[in-house]
Inverse folding.
């Protein structure tokens, strides 16, 4: 039972090696791994819900000397989201890269990315987190550059350099922590860490490094070109999961391990940057000419919402109101992950069928690809935050927290951001409809359209109507 | 030697490091700056040795100065702008005359960026030094180092660095091997291998014919000695890769790597694969992942390190080759 | 007595190094620079190591030093040859 934790890392890694050795059977290996890992993630979620925090000491050494894997409600939820997105994207990618020679190089990197995501979400050790960040960053860059032309390669190179700079800053922070506290174990650290120059500078270094990787405004400059020029399944995973993984780390550091160290002034910095990201990202998304760029800028904006929670969570005293806001933050992140991956997959279909993704020339897409257009509409609902999407719950709690903390300014930002999101969503949908007749079967390419549709539907309906367990699970924390 | 002499040496090292770093950053010619960077790496090796960190010194010498230098030089060599400037060189000027290969407009904007970055880095360095001094003066006992030495007897090796890398924190090393694999797959994704160099003349061939066996021998030694003294898979792999780089520079085609793609894949994967297999075997035996039985630990670590060395060396050589293997037809010509 | 000899050897080795470095900086073209550098450094290093070996009076240590010297000799003569050859090829090309 408890081996679930290590298998979540070991199985994708083993399959990555297997796909490299046996490229002929790659698709079968990947799909079976994806199913097994999803079942694993669900088992973990169930175990965390029933037994509480899960701990696995690798090599049998006590945490501190060795490395421990830990899973609480937050990491189990994100792991489950990652598994759903990656399972759907794997099925999608097996059709997307059907006869493409790139497939050979795609699968090993894809599984390595999955392995690094799981390893990051489970890691209970600061240096190990650095290693997983490196693995995540490298595999993401390699995937983003796959088969790209000059522009894509330039974007990937910038992505690589930004990622390396971010990891280096993170590592500098880790070094400081180790010099100051003599331990790398997160659980020990959260007990001993105390406000002072060491904790402040280490937290600042690690946070800047992570924000660079999370693409918080104004450090988002690398994201739109990198996410906008990668292959569709890769864009989906980059936008939905890779930036979320580093965001998860920021959350862990600020709200969990260093929560005693963070002052209200400090917490308002990510809030202000988040507000700027919401406004700037939404505005750029509205002005974007290409669908993929629109989706990428929308990611910048949606990440901004997540950072708006930081000053509010800092201001609220521990209790029911704070727990509710925390749940809102997580459900917003989950919804965005599912909706954005669905959106990117749907855009990929349009791009493959019509050879372009220029928004102005989408005319008739609704008739040619009704299921795909429906997926875009569903994910649009989640991005705007209309009921019954999970984002509606998230934004509701965000607003409630802003009211109860008395920080009114954020409300204005949320309002404007939501209006802009509605504008860019309806702009796409408005262009997508034409005069042509509808096809007889709404779903025309099943292996590609179903994953996009299911992801978007899950974000819009599943999380919105059945979001209550999220709050239950978040009570299980380290 | 007494303390004053050592202080003199230390000051000399610090000055050399800082001035070399500065010269590397401010050099206008990419090739010159790479060569300065290699020199910087060598002095840094001395500094690590002086700080009584022979493991780090070895790694820095082999990877930081040696292989990174070779990689950077190869990159400069194949950079399009470099090719342009050598064309310009061919139109008249003497070969050993210094060339400034960037145009003035480019230079101006890059100077501004460079100065901003320099100031940023200096500020960052001061913050780091300040915080580090605070950290060091807080006198927390290094509990980790204590528990490493307390558990060293059960780790299967007597070198604490190897014990940490291959036993206590073996999981980190496993993921690092995966990072290396990812890096090489990323390189494969980008391009095909560059064309080789001209076959070497008699003098270079003579050097190669005794240097390469010596390097292979040294790699074996480093691998073996890692159990109880500075050394180990990473240093050994880098040394082996150095042999490959030399063979490549001498114009040898296959440089010891298999031609067949599937064999090459096995070599690339074996490091992380065997590591993972050992870990999972422990799981199958009812022990935690990567929990070696103490009696077997020494042998298992040697086995893992041998496989890791092979993969590391292959990864570094392929990075130097700059891309995925060409098809056989291309090779035969 | 032996220490005086050792010191003399080391000092003369250093003088060779100094001459080599001055030659590297002052001589007009690549070939003469190479000439100054390799000759001076090989001999200088040899003298320096001989001095060190005498100073330590340990056979194993001395053998290691000789091995180092031989390795440097081989490497520096081969690289000097390669640099000179490359430069000659470049000159004859145009």
């Amino acid at each position: 039972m408890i081996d679930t934790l290590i298998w979540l890392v070991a199985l994708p890694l083993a399959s990555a090696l297997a796909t490299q050795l046996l490229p002929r059977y790659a698709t079968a290996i990947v799909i079976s791994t994806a199913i097994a890992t999803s079942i694993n993630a669900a088992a973990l979620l169930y175990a965390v819900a029933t037994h509480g925090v899960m701990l696995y000491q690798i090599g049998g050494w006590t945490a501190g000397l060795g490395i421990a894997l830990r899973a609480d409600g937050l990491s189990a939820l994100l792991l489950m989201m990652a598994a759903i997105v990656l399972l759907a994207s794997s099925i999608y990618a097996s059709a997307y890269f059907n006869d493409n020679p790139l497939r050979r190089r795609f699968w090993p990197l894809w599984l390595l990315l999955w392995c690094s995501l799981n390893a990051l979400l489970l890691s209970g050790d600061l240096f190990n987190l650095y290693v997983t960040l490196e693995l995540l960053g490298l595999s993401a860059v390699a995937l983003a550059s796959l088969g790209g032309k000059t522009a894509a390669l330039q974007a990937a190179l910038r992505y690589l350099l930004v990622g390396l700079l971010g990891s280096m800053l993170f590592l500098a922070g880790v070094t400081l922590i180790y010099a100051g506290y003599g331990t790398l174990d997160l659980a020990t650290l959260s007990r001993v860490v105390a406000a002072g120059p060491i904790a402040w500078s280490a937290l600042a270094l690690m946070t800047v490094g992570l924000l660079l990787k999370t693409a918080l405004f104004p450090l988002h400059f690398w994201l739109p070109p990198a996410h906008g020029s990668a292959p569709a399944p890769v864009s989906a995973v980059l936008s939905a999961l890779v930036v979320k993984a580093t965001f998860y780390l920021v959350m862990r550091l600020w709200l969990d391990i260093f929560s005693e160290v963070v002052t209200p002034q400090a917490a308002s910095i990510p809030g202000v940057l988040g507000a700027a990201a919401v406004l700037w990202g939404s505005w750029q998304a509205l002005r974007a000419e290409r669908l993929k760029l629109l989706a990428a800028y929308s990611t910048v904006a949606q990440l901004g919402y997540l950072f708006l929670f930081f000053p509010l969570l800092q201001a609220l005293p521990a209790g029911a109101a704070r727990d509710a806001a925390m749940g809102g933050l997580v459900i917003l992140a989950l919804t965005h992950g599912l909706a954005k991956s669905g959106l990117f997959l749907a855009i990929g279909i349009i791009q493959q069928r019509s050879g372009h993704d220029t928004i102005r020339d989408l005319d008739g897409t609704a008739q040619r690809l009704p299921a795909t257009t429906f997926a875009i509409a569903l994910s649009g609902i989640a991005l705007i935050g209309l009921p019954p999407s999970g984002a509606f719950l998230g934004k509701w709690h965000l607003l409630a927290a802003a009211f109860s903390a008395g920080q009114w300014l954020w409300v204005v930002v949320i309002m404007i951001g939501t209006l802009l999101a509605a504008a860019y969503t309806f702009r796409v949908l408005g262009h997508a409809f034409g005069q042509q007749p509808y096809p007889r079967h709404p779903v025309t390419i099943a292996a590609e359209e179903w994953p996009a549709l299911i992801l978007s539907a899950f974000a819009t309906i599943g999380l919105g109507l059945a979001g209550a367990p999220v709050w239950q699970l978040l009570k299980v924390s380290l | 030697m007494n303390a004053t002499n050592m202080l003199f040496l230390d000051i000399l090292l610090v000055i050399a490091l800082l001035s070399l770093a500065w010269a590397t950053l401010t050099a206008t010619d990419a090739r010159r700056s790479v060569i300065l960077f290699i020199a910087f790496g060598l002095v840094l090796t001395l500094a690590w040795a002086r700080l009584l960190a022979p493991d780090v010194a070895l790694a820095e010498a082999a990877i930081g100065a040696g292989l990174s230098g070779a990689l950077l030089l190869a990159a400069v060599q194949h950079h399009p702008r470099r090719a342009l400037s050598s064309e310009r060189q061919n139109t008249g000027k003497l070969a050993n005359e210094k060339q400034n290969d960037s145009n003035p407009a480019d230079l101006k904007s890059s100077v501004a960026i460079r100065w901003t970055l320099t100031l940023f880095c200096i500020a960052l360095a001061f913050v780091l030094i300040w915080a580090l001094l605070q950290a060091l003066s807080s006198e927390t006992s290094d509990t980790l180092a204590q528990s490493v030495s307390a558990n060293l007897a059960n780790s299967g090796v007597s070198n604490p660095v190897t014990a940490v890398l291959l036993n206590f924190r073996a999981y980190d090393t496993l993921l690092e091997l995966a990072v290396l694999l990812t890096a090489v797959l990323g390189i494969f994704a980008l391009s095909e291998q560059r064309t080789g160099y001209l076959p070497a003349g008699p003098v270079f061939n003579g050097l190669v014919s005794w240097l390469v066996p010596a390097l292979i021998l040294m790699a074996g030694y480093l691998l073996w000695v890692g159990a109880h003294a500075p050394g180990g898979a990473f240093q050994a792999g880098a040394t082996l890769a150095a042999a490959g780089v030399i063979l490549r520079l001498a114009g040898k085609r296959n440089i010891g790597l298999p031609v067949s793609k599937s064999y090459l894949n096995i070599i690339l994967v074996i490091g992380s694969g065997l590591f993972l297999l050992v870990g999972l075997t422990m799981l199958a035996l009812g022990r935690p992942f990567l929990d070696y039985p103490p009696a077997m630990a020494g042998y298992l670590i040697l086995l893992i390190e041998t496989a890791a060395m092979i993969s590391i060396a292959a990864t570094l050589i392929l990075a130097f080759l700059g891309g995925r293997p060409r098809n056989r037809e291309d090779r035969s010509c | 007595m032996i220490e005086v000899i050792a010191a003399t050897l080391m000092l003369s080795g250093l003088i060779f190094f100094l001459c080599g470095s001055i030659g590297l900086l002052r001589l007009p073209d690549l070939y003469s620079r190479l000439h100054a550098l390799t000759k001076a450094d090989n001999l200088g290093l040899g003298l320096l190591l001989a001095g060190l070996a005498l100073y330590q009076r340990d056979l194993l240590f001395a053998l290691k030093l000789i091995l180092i010297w031989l390795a440097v000799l081989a490497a520096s003569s081969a690289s000097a040859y390669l640099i000179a050859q490359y430069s000659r090829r470049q000159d004859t090309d145009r």
